[in-house]
From TrEMBL, chain A:
This is Ubiquitin-conjugating enzyme E2 2. Its main location: cytoplasm. The lineage of its organism: Eukaryota, Fungi, Dikarya, Basidiomycota, Agaricomycotina. One of its GO terms (biological process) is sporulation resulting in formation of a cellular spore. Pfam families: UQ_con (PF00179).
From TrEMBL, chain B:
Pathway: Protein modification; protein ubiquitination. Transmembrane segments: none annotated. Its EC number is 2.3.2.27. This is E3 ubiquitin protein ligase. Belongs to the BRE1 family. Residues 221-232, 268-287, 742-755 have a biased composition (Polar residues). GO terms for molecular function: ubiquitin protein ligase activity; zinc ion binding. It catalyses: S-ubiquitinyl-[E2 ubiquitin-conjugating enzyme]-L-cysteine + [acceptor protein]-L-lysine = [E2 ubiquitin-conjugating enzyme]-L-cysteine + N(6)-ubiquitinyl-[acceptor protein]-L-lysine. One of its GO terms (cellular component) is HULC complex. Gene3D superfamilies: Zinc/RING finger domain, C3HC4 (zinc finger) (3.30.40.10). It is found in: Nucleus. Its main location: nucleus. Residues 1-11, 235-244, 254-265, 758-769 have a biased composition (Basic and acidic residues). It comes from Gloeophyllum trabeum (strain ATCC 11539 / FP-39264 / Madison 617).
Amino acid sequence: MSTNCRRRLIRDFKRLSTDPPSGVSGSPCPDNIMLWNAVIFGPADTPFEDGTFRLLLTFDESYPNKPPTVKFLSRMFHPNVYANGELCLDILQNRWSPTYDVAAILTSIQSLLHDPNPNSPANAEAAQLYRENMKEYVRRVKETVEESWLDPEEKERMKQEDAQAASQ
Amino acid sequence: MESRKRTHAEDADPVVTKKRAVSNGYGSPTRVNGVATEVDEPKENDELESFRKEAIFRRMKHYSREHERSQHRIEELERRRNACEAGLSAIQACWTQLIDTIRLLVKPEALSSASVDTTGLFDMSTHVDSESSPELEKALQEQMNATRELVASFVQMGSQTRAALSADDMYITCQKARTECTALRSEVQVMRARLEDAESEKENYHSRLVAAENRLERLSSRTIPQSDSRSSAPPEKHTPKEEPVANAPSPTKVKVEDVQMKDESDGQPPTAQHGEASSPTEDTMPNGTGRPSAEEMDDWREIAAMREKEIRRLEEEITALREEQLALAVDQKVPSDETLQKMPLWKAVYQEFSHATWQRSDLEEQLKKAQEEVSELRVKLAEEAEKGNAQVAKIQQEYSNVIAKRDADLVRLREQRDQQAAELSERKHKDSERVAALESEVKRLRTRMAASTGDEDLVAFLFSDESVHGKTYVDELRTRLEEAETKLSALQESLSSLNQEHPDVAQHVQSEAEAREQVAQLSKELEKYRSIYGDASSGSSSDSPGQLREKEEELQKLRLQLKQQTQAESALYTEVEKLSAAWEALDKQVKNKVFDLSALEEKLSRALADRAKIENKFYAAMRDKEAVEFERKSLVRNIEKNGKSMESVIAAEKNLLAQVKLLEGEQAESRKIVQKYGPEIHRLTDQLKDYELKLEAEKTKAAQCKTELKQILDKHYTQQAELRRREEAIRRKEKEVERLQATAQSKLRSLSSQGGAKGKEHEREEELQGEVDKLMSVLKCSTCRQNMRNAVITKCMHSFCKQCVEARISTRQRKCPACNLPFGQQDVQPLYFQ
C-alpha cells in the first residue's frame, strides 16, 4: 500500500541518507514507516555539545499537509521542551508547511537546542535558569548530556546500582 | 565506573588515537560507500555507539584535566597557607617580644589587670581551618585589645614621668601614620579589586581553555567528522592527515594550562597567548592535503620567518607595556608626602578642620559681642525704668495736689452756699412773723377804732370777718338798702293797687299815710328831742338841767377821749409809717440779700463750671496717668523680655562654653587615640614590609613563570609557524592537485576523443546523472517530491503538482505551502512546460 504519504516518507528517507545534514540522523522503524527514530547530536560549543538525544517522530496519513508529532525519548533540560519530551516549536504547529521534510524538522530542532526561546517556556525552571543563572543552567544541561549517552536499559541498571549503594 | 574509564583514558591517550586514525584512514572508503548504498539500520547504531563512546572518553579526559588542575590548586593553597602560618608565627614572636619589653620597662604592680595571653594565638591559628575563621578573628581581637590596653597604660606612665613629650611631634607623626595607613588601605582595596578582576579573567580564560580543549578533542576524534560531513565528497582523506597535526598541540596545551595556573594574577599574557592559540585550532579545521615540495619549502620558510619576526616584535611591545604597568603600580604603591598632601581626602579634612576652628573663633567673638550688648541693654533699661517711674510719680503728685485743692474749694463754696441759703430762710421767716404781727395790730386797732366810734355792726362785722375789709361792709349796707327799697316799693305797689281798687280808700289811706308820715316825722322829732332833752313826758324840768350838765360833761369827756383817740390814732399812724419805713428798709434789705444770693449763685455756677473743668482736667490727668502706667507696664515687659533674651544669651554662652570644653575633651581624646595608634601604625608598617617582602617573592615567582611562559610561547610559536607552513603547503598542494586534475582531464579528454578508456566515461556518466537528478528535483513538486509541477497559484506564482494543491484545497488549508499566502480555488491555474 503506497499512499502519497508513504511515498513522500520514502523520498524523505532517501534524501536524508544521500544528503544528510550535519549532526542529525534518522530512520523509519523496520516494520512501520509511519514511525521514525531519530538522533540529534548536540551542537558543538554549546552546553548540549556531544549529547546524543533520541527522538520519536509519528506521522499520519495527512502528512505532508499536517505536521508529524515529535517527542524526545531522552530526558531533556531545555526551556522549550516539556517534561514528557514533547516540544514547543512553531513550525511543528501553526507555521507548518508541506515543503518541510524530516531533515528540515531535525535541523530546526537542533538549532532550537542552542537557541532556546525563553519567552514561551515549556519548562519554567529551565527558562528561569537560562535567564538568571546561566552557570546552573549549563550544569543541568550537562547532566542531561551525560545521561543521553546511556541506553535506557543501562540507565535502569545504574539506577539500581545507585540504590544499592545508597542502601549500603 | 569512573575509575575504570579513567584508567582507559590515561593509557590510551596518544597511542590509541593514532592507531585508530590510521586504521580508519584505510578502512573508511568502503564504509562510506556502504553508508550510501547498504541498509542503514545496523550502521547507524554502530556509529551512534562509537560516537557515544568517544564522547564519554572525551568527557572523562576533560574531568581528569579538571582534577589535575584542582590538585595543583590545592597544592598551591597548601603552600600559601604554610607561608601564612609562618608569617603569623613571626608576628606572634614580635608581639610577645614587644610585650615582654614593655613588661620589663614597667613595674609589674603599675600595670593594671591587662593580662596578655599571647601563647594561645599561634596554637589556635595552627588548628583553625578556613571555616572557623571568626574564632581566629575573635582571638586576634582579644589579643589586640589586651595589648592595646597594656601599651596605653605604658604610654601613660611614660607621659606621667616626662610630660614634655611635645604634642605637636606626636600629632605630626600620628598624622603621617594615619595617612600612610589610609594609603595602605586604599592600596589594599585597589589590589583586591585587581585580584577580583584577575580572578574573573582567570575564570573566563579557564572556561575558554576548557572549550578549546574540548574542541581539540573533538577534532582529534574520528566519529564527529564522520557524522558532520558524510555528505561532503571525500571526508576520509582528512582524518589521517589531521591526526598528527591535531595531536601535536595537545602537550603544549597541557603546559599552557600550567602556566595559566601560575599566572593567575597578571591578566595580559593569557589573552595574547590564547588568541594566538585559538587561531591555529580554527585553522586546523579546513585541512589541506599533501606535503610541500623541496623548492617551495624555502618560500614558506621565508614567510614563516617574517611572521615570527612580527610576532617577536609584538611580544616585545607587550613586555615593554607590562614593564610600564609595573612601574606605574610601584608609583601607586609608594606615594610620596606631596602626593599624600595632594590627596583630596587630606585636603578635605584640612579644610574642614580650618573651617571648624574659624567657626569657633567667630562664635566666641559673637558671644562676647552679645554679652556686651546685653550689659549695655541692662544699664539702659534700668535708667529708663527709673526715669519713667520718677516722671510718673511726679505727674501723679501734681495731679493729686490739684485735685485736693479743687476739692477743698468746692467744699468751701458749698458751705458758703448752704450758709447763705440758711440765712435767707431765717430772714424770710423773721419778716413774715413781723408782718403777721403788724397785721394783727392793724386789725386790733381797727376794731378799737370801730368800738370807739360805736358802730356795733362794724365791730361785729369786723369780728365776724376779719379778712373782709371796708368794701364788703359797704356792700352789705347796700344790700340792706336794696332790701329796704324793695320792701318799700312792694308797699307802694300794694298801696297803689289799693288806690286803684278803692280810690276813696286810697285817698283815705293816702291821707292816712300822710298822716302817719307826719306822725312818724313828728315821732322822730320827738325822739330827737327826747334823746337830747330826755324824756319830757316823764322827766322834770329840774332834772333836765342836771342831766344836761352831766351830759355836757360826758360830752366833754368824750371829746377829750376823741382827741386822745385821734392823738393815739396819729401816734399809731406814725407808728405805722415808721413800721412801713422799717418794712421798706427790710424790703430793701431783702432785695439786697436776693441780689447777693443771685450773685452767689452765679459764683456757684461759675464754681461748678470750674469744677467741671477741673474734673475734666482731672480725668485727662487720670487718662494721662493710665497711659503713663501702660507705658510703664510695656517698659516693664520690655525689661522682662530683655531679661529673657539675656538669659537665653547667657544660656547660649554656657552652651558654647560646654562645647568648647567638649571640643577640648575631644581633642584630648584624639590625642590619646593618636598615642594609641602609634604602635599600631608601627605594626602596620611592619606588616607592610612583610607584604612587600612577600610581594617581591611573588614577583620573582612571576618572573620565573614569565620565563617559563616565554619558553612555552616560543615552543608554541614554533609549532604555530610549523602549522602555518604546513597549511600553506597544503594549500599549495591543493592548487597543484587542481592543476594536475585539469591537466589530467585535458589528457583524458584527448584520450576519450581518441576513443579512450571506458571507466572514465562511466564516471562522467555518473556525474551527468547527478546533474539530471538536481534538475529533476527543481522540476518536481516541492511538496510531494514525486510528480512534476503542473499547477501554479497565480497569487504568488509558486508552482506545485495538481494533487498537492487539490489536497490543500480539500483539507481547507488554502495557503501556499511555500509562502503561506492564502489563495482561492480560482487562483489555481494549470502550468505547462512549453
